[in-house]
């Protein structure tokens, strides 16, 4: 049996239930998914924390320049012989929407899910990459004339 010795943890859990996330099965606004985002070379990388979420419970959609990640953490198995002792992990639907810039190639997003982290790699569009422009002009023509 699991013993709890911190009375304030129970008070925090109760306050979260009352003022925070509603009980599973009731209608609520989905909780936000924490993320990190950064640029690495020619791609934009976004990492979402989704611990305890099965890969088949994750939905990834792109519509225009809006990327939506939705995931559902389902309750532990239940039955006649299962009695929950402690239930502190939030359950239900989690969601996050990102508005992507025009400089990203949303047609070639790569997604990987490992160790509870969903990693998206979004290439930078070719039109947004820096490029060198060759300059031509009178100086080039003068060299040819002087030679």
From TrEMBL:
Domain (SHSP) ranges: 26-138
Q: Mind telling me which SUPFAM superfamilies this protein's record contains?
A: HSP20-like chaperones
UniProt cross-references to InterPro entries, sorted A to Z = A-crystallin/Hsp20_dom, HSP20-like_chaperone, Small_HSP
Q: Which domain of life is it from?
A: Bacteria
UniProt record similarity statement: Belongs to the small heat shock protein (HSP20) family.
The protein's name is Hsp20 family protein
